[in-house]
Automatic annotation (TrEMBL), chains A, B:
Location of the Methyltransferase domain: 509-640
Superkingdom assignment: Bacteria
Name this polypeptide is given: 5-histidylcysteine sulfoxide synthase
Domain Sulfatase-modifying factor enzyme-like: 199-455
NCBIfam families per the UniProt record, alphabetical: ovoA_Cterm, ovoA_Nterm
Biological or metabolic pathway of the protein: Amino-acid biosynthesis; ergothioneine biosynthesis
UniProt KW keywords: Iron, Oxidoreductase
Domain DinB-like span(s) in chain numbering: 34-168
Pfam families, per database record: DinB_2 (PF12867), FGE-sulfatase (PF03781), Methyltransf_31 (PF13847)
InterPro entries: CTDL_fold, DinB-like, Methyltranfer_dom, OvoA_Cterm, OvoA_Nterm, SAM-dependent_MTases_sf, Sulfatase_Mod_Factor_Kinase, SUMF_dom
Chain's gene name: ovoA
GO molecular function: formylglycine-generating oxidase activity
Gene3D superfamilies assigned: paralog of FGE (formylglycine-generating enzyme), Vaccinia Virus protein VP39
Protein species of origin: Pelagicoccus albus
Amino acid sequence: MTTNSATTEIKTPYTVNLSTGDPEAKREEIRRYFHETYDAYEALFEPFLDKVAYTTRADALRHPLIFYYGHTATFFMNKLVLAKLVDRINPGFESIFAIGVDEMSWDDLNEAHYAWPDPDEVREYRAQVRECIDQLISKLPIKLPIGWESPFWPIMMGIEHERIHLETSSVLIRQLPTSLLDGEHPAWQPSDSDTTPQTNEIIAVPGKSVALGKSLEDAYYGWDNEYGTYSKEITDFGASKYLVSNDEFLAFVQDGGYSNRDFWTEEGWNWVSYEKATCPRFWLPQPDGSYKFRTMLKEIDMPWSWPVETNYLEAKAFCNWKAAKTGQPVRLPTEEEWYRLLDYTEVPDAPAWKKAPGNLNLEGPASSVPVDTHPFKHGFYDVVGNVWQHTETPIRGYDGFEIHPLYDDFSTPTFDTKHNMIKGGSWISTGNELMRDSRYAFRRHFYQHAGFRYVISDAPVEIPDDSWETDPEVIPYCEFNYGKEYFDVDNYPEKLAQICLDIASDRKREKALVLGCKTGRAAFELAAGYKNVTGIDFSARMIRIGVQLKEKGYTQYTLPEEGEISSFHQVKLQNLGLDGTRDRVEFMQGDLSNLKEIYQGYDLILLDTLLERSYDPQKFLESASKRLNEGGLLVIASTYDWQEKVTSRDHWLGGIKVNGENVTGKDRIEELLSKEFKKLGTSRDLEYVLRRTARTFDHNIADLTVWEKR
Amino acid sequence: MTTNSATTEIKTPYTVNLSTGDPEAKREEIRRYFHETYDAYEALFEPFLDKVAYTTRADALRHPLIFYYGHTATFFMNKLVLAKLVDRINPGFESIFAIGVDEMSWDDLNEAHYAWPDPDEVREYRAQVRECIDQLISKLPIKLPIGWESPFWPIMMGIEHERIHLETSSVLIRQLPTSLLDGEHPAWQPSDSDTTPQTNEIIAVPGKSVALGKSLEDAYYGWDNEYGTYSKEITDFGASKYLVSNDEFLAFVQDGGYSNRDFWTEEGWNWVSYEKATCPRFWLPQPDGSYKFRTMLKEIDMPWSWPVETNYLEAKAFCNWKAAKTGQPVRLPTEEEWYRLLDYTEVPDAPAWKKAPGNLNLEGPASSVPVDTHPFKHGFYDVVGNVWQHTETPIRGYDGFEIHPLYDDFSTPTFDTKHNMIKGGSWISTGNELMRDSRYAFRRHFYQHAGFRYVISDAPVEIPDDSWETDPEVIPYCEFNYGKEYFDVDNYPEKLAQICLDIASDRKREKALVLGCKTGRAAFELAAGYKNVTGIDFSARMIRIGVQLKEKGYTQYTLPEEGEISSFHQVKLQNLGLDGTRDRVEFMQGDLSNLKEIYQGYDLILLDTLLERSYDPQKFLESASKRLNEGGLLVIASTYDWQEKVTSRDHWLGGIKVNGENVTGKDRIEELLSKEFKKLGTSRDLEYVLRRTARTFDHNIADLTVWEKR
């Protein structure tokens, strides 16, 4: 099972259709796919001439290759242990090879903390894991379709994970000293083709809608970020015929591109300054001012006709330079524009290929090829393949995004607007990476076998701030307003709004004001009856959620489950039946104790558990009447939970002794309002639950009173 | 209605029987009692020669008399407003005359904050209040018996309150300069009797049980502290035949009693030093070394045969001096010993009197009389009357103590072990003060018309620390363990213990350990099945409650309702069916993360929501097995709510990523225990509710797992 003999050909079948076919035949197909993946990955390490190649750091911010050698096997084990399908083989290895791929907070890249084992031991471990998984594939019950719940899903997860590392490890190997590598290994030879560089040109792409995201019923393995729905109308744009070649990029370098701050984003300039970069990483400046070029295993003469490989920051600087030179709106495509080009050029999806339509899937050489090698429709080249293509779009989840419980941090830590998507695949992209639906993103300064195509478009790039709300003050109120009900307590803001709507059913219902609107649910609910609803909260962090819902119809947030473990939640107004009236709602920041005079002329003011969270609650009550229309309603919900850290004792409405007698907030409110208001009906209790963790909650009882302006 | 003409006789009927009689006749009886009380109080102020007498401070720590003049009327109004029976007459007066009687935190005695009105205005206000109450007495529906809920109760409350101030204001007047007073006012003339001082002697009082406290069905008005039950076995003691006379006290003074620290308690010595006292307050040292004496209105020759009047601290110093001189265990009586003497001398209760059995009820002169004037059975004098008698006993509530909602701070602020009881009444004690059941207490340095009788007894004085638990960390756990159920959630520790008892029903049940016992309920519950239960908590503040319950069978605590307003609660093991086994339970302070080795040999260890509140929870789990007997059970309840402020992140059992994978506390506990334990059954959820205020709660769900030692 070891792979000591030199591989000459990597077998790269397309990823498995998990939906149809004979189950036992499917079992064998998965077994074959597993072994061929495992073989391919081990073939990556065959060119290592010396054990020191394993422990040499190719990149200062990444583990040495020995980590990645063990990692793909350990990943299988860790997921299968989590799925309670296997027992550990080597707990020590399964700890040190577990984490350290991205620059996550939990990545420990201090090499002093690691005593890397001998590569032979790791090879032996890999063999044990291979055997273990092979046996597991034999014995697991199989049933089609294989979905998220199937025990075969973590096996597919391990395989596709290893295929990702097949590519990313090849990038790291490309950064090892050539002296440690057998440059002539037959399986990893670069192309020897270098054509005359072509002048790039812009080809028009007509606008159209693109629909993205796949369903859980899809027949192929997918990472969590691929599921859900998203569609966008794309306006006409122009796209470069070719990927940008080394030759085309040279003009930017020679024009002082790397030393002119104007062309760089702030993040880009920080990177250039830190790295002291003067050209793309795989260009090797020579003493005579010329360049050589680094492939995976060796240095070659500069292939000017091959696509340039840069990180996002360099690609973006090139576009800015080009825009400055041409006066044209040059930029990188968005994710959606890239898909539009894919649709426009009618590229079929991988499983339908007889042969890859571009330089992909290791079907060609172990390197790029000239940018004019692979033509697509309408005159384009390399719509997919050769090198990945940077986009302007940070990765985020589509509507309906859910997390697979066995890999809850595959995507969400990258939903931070700091990880931009790359599309289209490279010569070494295989498996899931070839699928139309696949979505990968890296930090903008990371290198992959990635270059770019530029577009000309006036359409602004919208970078949706589509990260997950994690503000610990805000997220309990997201769940409280839009999430699950706990302890059989009805959704509080919904019920509160319903009570208001019922009471006001035969009254004028033009304008309503919600004071203490939190994340907005009551305001949206009131819009069913009122033409104009303003929600006000003191905290911009709270109303941000309401604004998001109004503008986008959805919001998403994390909830702490236990300690650092969180779950991810998305809510949509549509699912709550609140989508139709969201244009009637607005959210403003405001201070109850110092509320602007403009907030007047209401038919309803709902004051929701805010008096007890204001520094001078009496002030509002004194102005309440003049803010209401004739016969307008003031609805007050309060727990009367006065706290000194919020309201100084001399401003408490109740819970105090006045002239030696106990005064409750309820009494005091009645006293303050009785001149200008008539109390309607009796007060009532309304429970609400704030979730803190999976097992801890606040459970309160608001007192609800209704007042009619005299 | 004003009382400008000099009163010559104060009418002092006994307090009203509220239980029997014709309702309309009762209405008139109350009206008469009201007016006679109001008259008597106003008569107090008749001797004032000048308005300045109203605004002169008689005592640096008390308001001037003008406050007390207005206060008794305002008290009526404030209670009747609170009871929603009347509207305010003069909100300004009803604010400034409301508070400032004791030295409470809410008393504002800074005179700069007061602009006292003219006494004539106050007199006019008093007349308005009198008229208002008279009308109220006419119109209120009346029904016998008149109990706590009756609208006549606040009227009786106001009357008896004014009768208290009749006495306490007379003490303040006694401290005004005589130049401001008409010393010859006919209603307030002192006795002119002064007999030859008698030598005091000790008379034996045989021990017996005393039963104290009255029921809510009692026919007479009572303050909250009088209700409930309490009984105590009194051992034989000796009591002085007479109250200590001025003559007897003189020996102490002449022996340097006021300058010898040895005789004084620390509190007493602080008082002597601060006041620079050299003799009792109403003794007036003359330049020739003799003394004159101050009565309510004037100075007279020293009546050596009258009872000495001191505060508690001086009385106590005298006893200590006498004990030092005689080698006898001389001290003041306890409350119970005073009652024993009352019972032994068969003193009937006030309503049965034809004439007061001592110098009481203003039936004699407006002063004390010689201590040999009023004989009682068995040779005693002044068992009641003449002056109040200091006791060793700080006031507290009896079992079943409840607070009347219209006067929730009559007693509880004095249940602080700093207010000692005085018993027996003085020449100016009237109304409720004459009743056997009445209980009054003052700060130990306060002066009243009070002296003392000493006793000889070896019985130690037990000062029950009978204050109300107010520790904000502890009181939610008092209610949680012993109080009401909220949101229909069963009592958690009771249910938890029941589950343990059920699981262990056919096992050895000798020794059980509760870790995280809080205020002890689960430990008491487990004692139903285990012979020996140890409850351990990290917090001595928590286990103090358990210890109290074990030792006394009851505990009492306040609960925040809203802001500063609290309610008062008493719980008894007996009412929970837990009284019979409390000797099987012990409570210890201990640290789960560093638990002593001696805690071994258990058949059950219940680990209740403590792992998540320990700084190193793993440590205990590693030792759990060796602490259990063969087949012993470990029951773990946890919310897995790891918090950094309690447990540093590297000691969290779960809620963390280990090698990049989520690990839950539940998983980790299973991993740690699986070698030495077998898990029994499946885990289950157990809800619990912690009350924070009347409307705010924590509502959590513990996960319960049961482990059997292999």
